[in-house]
Design a protein that fits this description.
heterodimer; A: 385 residues; Rossmann fold; OB fold (Dihydrolipoamide Acetyltransferase, E2P); six-stranded mixed β-sheet; five-stranded antiparallel β-sheet; globular; B: Phosphorylase Kinase, domain 1; Transferase(Phosphotransferase), domain 1; six-stranded antiparallel β-sheet; three-stranded antiparallel β-sheet; 11 helices; 43% helix
Chain lengths: 385, 412
């Protein structure tokens, strides 16, 4: 087990493409760190530099406190867990887990002990004498993980290991991978493009875009305190509603399209920098759950939208609505097809399952004003302090 | 449903009538064929014969199918031996993966078939050489395989050697050039996976005595390093030996089936340093020459053997006529008077067991043995008849006509 530290790491390819810019990151011993971002954000390149598959152009990589820039992949004592694995049909589960150790000429007693320990962690003890053909899809995946576990590496590196699985098995394996990682306590760097996977699995999540670090923190911290519009839009599903707006004089209200929402003093006290934006344009953000449906005569801060679509999930309803404001789309945070489908002023709200609502309705949403986010229109940075 | 293919693929049009809106594993179609002793696969793979051509169909996510389609096309452009991709089928219906369609490699065989065939003896050495050469070719072309294994490779007999072809490129990546780390990881993965495959054969009682699964990977790594070094190492040259040493190095590269893409001579105080950027040769030089002279398509070692026979035949013609015979005339007459008549005599029931150039090569070998025994040259016609009677019937059936084995376990 070993901590991993990246200090101002850069990757510039021979053709001049700068894939990773000054990436600094500390992964604590035993931590599960997820690197997430859209395609081309540099997450896989960063992982490959840690693995030794890509040369580091500049910066320092340390594994277990030791500089590792010039070490071979083998010397780094890491285990890559890939999406592809092969189970051998004539070999038992025990042989499938332990064969790589056999190839390394590990003494039999030691090999058996390691396989037994791994099977215990994986919940496969009762299946050790079975053949792969007798296993479920989930158990087969666990056997594949067993191969990495028995090697007892200092660091696990996982590059979209679940992307080939069907949706059901993927959800099941997310929990499995997390449970197993906690149990063995090996520092893990996990790459995914799926923010839901990132949020549900990581102790901490690193968001990357265009090779640059956007933010690193616990999933909840990122969700509650995005540093910029990109993180705000990328983290969370459905995505945060982001609109162009104008802050009123004295920062006592904010105008979103034609609707004006009053801001209590507490909002400005919590974000003193907002005063500097009085009378100026900015971007406001509201999570779907911070827009509950309200009766039309509510006295608190509210927004009225026209309902376009209702998705009934049983426990709640996801209401797609429009208002007469410009919806802000963070480039790269959602895929192009999805972005093209977003209508002018479109928003999403989570409302109670029993709220009577149908397409075409004018619906009033209470605005959870303390949860409203504010961003600089030009830089996209969060306005907080 | 959408069928994306790379033209010309007119002969694949018949595939459009297959039941693509059903899960591949549930298909019932008279064109389906089972492959014996196939490699291991994580996906459902089935084989279809249509219009005299055999296709491999693999069910796989659309993302991977599109990627594999792209990679296989790139490999073809770079002359890396790999299966030929025909197309992909996407939008097949709810919950149905895409299907990647490749043309099954004619006259090919698998490692499992090779290990179970008493005819070829112990194939370990030839398997290793073929796999290592394929891996080196990939690496020189900037491809990281990511899943180098015997299951992901098909083999063809090539005049006493084996030629390896890449089958599965799900994990492959193309880079401008590979880093040492990428190459090392590919070798490590190859060592582990081939070792696993042989241990699996051993566990199933299918590995011949004398094959050591534990040393196969180590041997693979050693041979890879030796070949890589031969093809890419820098050499120090003294000025007076420069010309012949460069020529000698290029000759060795060509003999191994590679070309020099760029030569760089760097002056140093100790002499000139020769740096060679090696590339995969456009096609084997012997294959190209044979095709140009006769229109016969053969693998490299087969082609060399057949060209040698053409040269002997030319000598015989010149001796007989007592005048020079051009290479073109000799090749034309050899085709008409020697090769075609022999190939025409292959018994119909035994056709398809080996490629015709391989059969011709084996007849030449057989002729040598018979002539040694007889103490005089028995001639090609007699050797061919003896070969058809005593050798070819014992060559295993082609993989595609035996009906044992599970289609879902087939490699592709």
């Amino acid at each position: 087990m070993a901590p991993v530290s990246l200090e101002k790491i850069n990757k510039v390819y021979e053709n001049g493409f700068h894939a990773v810019h000054d990436l600094s990151l500390d992964i604590a011993d035993g931590e599960f760190m997820v690197l997430v971002g859209p395609s081309g954000c540099g997450k896989t390149t960063a992982l490959r530099m840690v693995a030794g598959l890509e040369d580091i152009t500049s910066g320092i990589l340390r594994i277990g406190g030791k500089e590792a820039n010039d070490e071979t992949p083998k010397q780094r004592d890491i285990a890559m867990v890939f999406q592809n694995y092969a189970l051998y049909p004539h070999m038992t589960v025990a042989q499938n887990i332990g064969f790589a150790l056999k190839l390394r000429h590990l003494p039999k007693d030691e090999l058996n002990a390691k396989v037994k320990d791994a099977a215990d962690i994986l919940g496969l003890t009762d299946w050790l004498d079975r053949k792969p053909g007798q296993l479920s899809g989930g158990q087969r995946q666990r056997v594949a993980m067993g191969r990495a576990i028995v090697r007892e590496p200092s660091v696990f590196l996982m590059d979209e290991p679940l992307s080939n699985l069907d949706a059901k098995l993927r959800v099941q394996m997310r929990a499995e991978v997390q449970r197993i990682q906690r149990r063995i306590g090996v520092s893990t760097i996990y790459v995914t493009h799926d923010q839901v996977e990132a949020m549900t699995m990581g102790d901490r999540v690193t968001v990357l875009r265009d090779g640059r670090l956007q933010q690193v923190g616990t999933p909840q911290y990122l969700y509650d305190n995005p540093d910029n519009i990109f993180v705000a839009a990328f983290i969370g599903s459905p995505s945060m509603n982001l609109y162009d707006a104008t802050l009123g004089e004295g920062a006592r209200s904010v105008k979103i399209g034609s609707q004006e929402v009053d801001l209590p003093e507490s909002v400005v006290l919590a974000r003193p920098a907002l005063r500097g934006y009085a009378g100026k344009k900015l971007v406001v953000g509201l999570r779907p759950e911070h827009l509950p449906a309200e009766s039309a005569d509510t006295t608190g801060p509210k927004l009225v939208g026209e309902v376009e679509l209702v998705e009934a999930l049983g426990s709640e309803q996801v209401v797609h609505f429009t208002i007469d404001a410009n919806r802000v789309l963070a480039e790269g945070a959602v895929d192009k097809d999805e972005a093209a489908a977003v209508k002018h002023g479109e928003g999403v709200a989570r409302v109670a399952a029993k709220t009577p609502v149908k397409p075409g309705d004018k619906l009033t949403f209470a605005v959870s004003i303390e949860d409203m986010k504010f961003f600089d229109e030009a830089t996209g940075a969060a306005i907080r302090e | 449903m959408r069928f994306v293919f790379s033209p010309p693929a007119a002969e694949a049009a018949g595939l459009l009538t297959l039941p693509f809106d059903e899960p591949l594993e549930e298909w019932q179609d008279e064109r389906l064929i089972e492959i014996s002793q196939a490699g291991l696969s994580r996906h459902v793979v089935r084989f279809v014969a249509d219009g005299g051509v055999l296709y491999a169909l693999k069910s796989i996510s659309e993302r991977l199918a599109r990627r594999e389609y792209r990679v296989l096309r790139a490999l073809a452009e770079l002359n890396v031996p790999a299966v030929e991709v025909v197309g992909i089928v996407v939008d097949r219906g709810p919950d149905l993966d895409a299907i990647l369609v490749t043309r099954f490699l004619e006259y090919s065989t698998t490692y499992r078939a090779l290990f179970s065939s008493p005819r070829v003896g112990q194939p370990t050495d030839r398997l290793l050489d073929a796999l290592v050469e394929l891996l080196v070719r990939l690496h020189l072309s900037g491809f990281f395989w990511g899943d180098c294994s015997l299951s992901n490779t098909l083999f063809r007999y090539d005049a006493g050697t084996l030629a390896a072809y890449l089958v599965d490129t799900e994990t492959s990546e193309q880079h401008p050039a590979l880093s040492d780390g990428q190459r090392q990881l590919d070798i490590e993965l190859a060592m582990e996976r081939t070792g696993g495959e042989l241990l699996d054969l051993e566990a199933g009682g299918l590995l011949p005595a004398g094959v050591d699964p534990l040393s196969f990977g180590e041997e693979l790594s050693g041979r890879y390093e030796a070949l890589w070094d031969e093809l890419t190492r820098e050499e120090k040259l003294r000025p007076q030996e420069q010309r012949y040493r460069i020529a000698e190095r290029l000759r060795r590269l060509n003999a191994l089936g590679f070309d020099a893409d760029e030569l760089e001579l760097i002056s140093t105080p100790d002499g000139n340093k020769l740096r060679i950027r090696t590339k995969v040769a456009a096609a084997g030089q012997h294959s190209t020459q044979l095709f140009r002279q006769t229109g016969i398509s053969a693998d490299e070692h087969q082609a060399r053997r057949l060209l040698n026979d053409i040269a002997s035949f030319r000598g015989y013609l010149e001796q007989k006529s007592d005048q020079p015979v051009s290479e073109t005339v000799a090749a034309h007459r050899w085709l008409e008077e020697v090769y075609d008549p022999v190939v025409a005599k292959i018994p119909v029931r035994l056709r398809g067991r080996l490629a015709p150039p391989e059969i011709f090569h084996e007849i030449l070998e057989h002729r040598w043995y018979l002539s040694e025994q007889a103490g005089h040259d028995v001639g090609t016609t007699a050797a061919a008849q003896s070969y058809f009677d005593t050798v070819l019937p014992y060559v295993p059936e082609p993989l595609t006509t035996v009906t044992e084995g599970l289609p879902g376990e087939a490699g592709s």
